[in-house]
């Protein structure tokens, strides 16, 4: 059975979650009677923790507005969740340019953990292995990420200094719609008032972000994540590829994800049988074509190449290599 001190700390944890907690609710959560809850609240007041008593039908207890507890109290499950989140975040690129922040945060949490829990977490982290190697990440500056996220939240324009992939520097004014993390990189999708177009910018290439006066109304349409994926799929690479594939968008996206290709379902011919599988037009921009034959073959779906003609030759050569390998005997 929990000791009174543990229940007092549990009461503090419930109050820290915010709002007014009725005495009846607290008694039920702590497994004690209402009189004991009032005594525990008195213990917190003795420790100079500003617990307020709220009278009335919906009254109860709450912490004084603006009060924050200096120490961090975590249950076993919470401590494990935080540490695993920090480790997974570093591997997935969900960090800022201050690369040591995750490590120092991890160290601080582990320093204040009880020895019993610290040893158990060491066992988990020591036994943990990942099947995929850490990806190459490009982290933004903390000040840039925080400023742009604040501008997105409050629909405020923002001024940025940006370095393009070719090294050109520019100053731009944006109406930012959303911040998106994709494949180890951070992006902001926004209306670029400098060019009058909707654009996607990599946050690691933003060297300065400053919120401006005023506000704007975000447009209707695709959500920020979809805008980023569409922007990546239509980036101006060397080759424009269009292929018709028999299958559903879900089947096609298993090999050609949304950040690589735009899939448009085609209307079925009027004479088509109801059970006939639909076709989709797949459009993508790529720098090289040599990887596409293997991807098209892995889909195992009928397809028709619309452009470029160079891709037809590559698919035929790939098919010949497969046929030659299949005919070999041990």
Tell me what portion of residues adopts beta-strand conformation: 15-25%
Low-confidence stretches: none
Choose one word for the global shape: elongated
- Helix and strand element order: HHHEEHHHHEEEEEHEHEEHEH
* Widest β-sheet, arrangement of strands: 6-5-4-3-7
Q: Determine the fraction of residues in helical runs and give it as a percent range.
A: 25-40%
Radius of gyration: 28 Å
What distinguishing features does this structure have?
330 residues; alpha+beta; four-stranded antiparallel beta sheet; five-stranded antiparallel beta sheet
What does this structure look like?
- The chain has 330 residues and is α+β, with helices and mostly antiparallel strands.
- It is built from eleven helices and eleven strands.
- Strands 6-5-4-3-7 form a five-stranded antiparallel sheet.
- β3 and β4 form a beta hairpin.
- The longest helix has 19 residues.
- It is elongated, with a radius of gyration of 28 Å.
- The chain starts with a helix and ends with a helix.
- The mean pLDDT is 83.
In short:
It is built from 11 helices and 11 strands. The chain has helices at residues 4-16, 23-30, 34-46, 76-92, 101-111, 115-127, 142-154, 224-233, 249-253, 292-299, 309-327; strands at residues 51-54, 60-63, 158-163, 169-182, 185-192, 197-202, 206-211, 239-246, 261-265, 279-286, 303-307.
Give a topology summary.
Layout: H1 4-16, H2 23-30, H3 34-46, E1 51-54, E2 60-63, H4 76-92, H5 101-111, H6 115-127, H7 142-154, E3 158-163, E4 169-182, E5 185-192, E6 197-202, E7 206-211, H8 224-233, E8 239-246, H9 249-253, E9 261-265, E10 279-286, H10 292-299, E11 303-307, H11 309-327
Antiparallel strand pairs: 1-2, 3-4, 3-7, 4-5, 5-6, 8-10, 8-11, 9-10
Helix pairs in contact: 1-3, 2-3, 4-5
């Amino acid at each position: 059975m929990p000791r009174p001190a543990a229940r007092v700390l549990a009461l503090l944890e419930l109050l820290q979650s915010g709002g007014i907690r009725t005495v009846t609710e607290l008694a039920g959560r702590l497994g004690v009677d209402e009189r004991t809850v009032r005594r525990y609240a008195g213990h917190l007041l003795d420790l100079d923790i500003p617990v307020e008593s709220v009278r009335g039908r919906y009254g109860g207890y709450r912490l004084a507005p603006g009060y924050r507890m200096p120490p961090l109290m975590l249950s076993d499950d919470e401590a494990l969740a935080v540490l695993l989140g920090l480790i997974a975040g570093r591997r997935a690129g969900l960090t800022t340019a201050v690369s040591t922040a995750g490590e120092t945060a991890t160290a601080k949490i582990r320093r204040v953990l009880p020895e019993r829990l610290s040893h158990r977490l060491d066992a988990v982290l020591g036994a943990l292995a990942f099947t995929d190697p850490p990806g190459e990440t490009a982290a933004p500056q903390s000040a840039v990420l925080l400023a742009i996220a604040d501008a997105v939240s409050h629909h405020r324009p923002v001024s940025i200094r940006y370095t393009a992939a070719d090294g050109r520097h520019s100053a731009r004014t944006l109406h930012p719609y959303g911040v998106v993390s994709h494949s180890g990189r951070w992006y902001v999708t926004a209306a670029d008032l400098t060019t009058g177009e909707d654009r996607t910018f990599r946050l690691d290439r933003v060297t300065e972000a400053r919120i401006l006066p005023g506000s704007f109304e975000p447009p209707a349409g695709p959500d920020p994540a979809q805008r980023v994926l569409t922007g990546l799929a239509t980036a101006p690479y060397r080759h424009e590829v269009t292929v018709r594939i028999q299958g559903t968008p879900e089947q096609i996206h298993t090999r050609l994800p949304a950040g690589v290709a735009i899939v448009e379902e085609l209307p079925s011919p009027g004479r088509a049988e109801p059970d006939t599988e639909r076709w989709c037009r797949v459009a993508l921009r790529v720098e090289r074509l040599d990887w596409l034959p293997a991807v098209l073959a892995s889909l195992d779906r009928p397809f028709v190449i619309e452009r470029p003609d160079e891709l037809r030759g590559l698919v035929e050569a790939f098919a010949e290599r497969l046929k030659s390998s299949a005919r070999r005997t041990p």
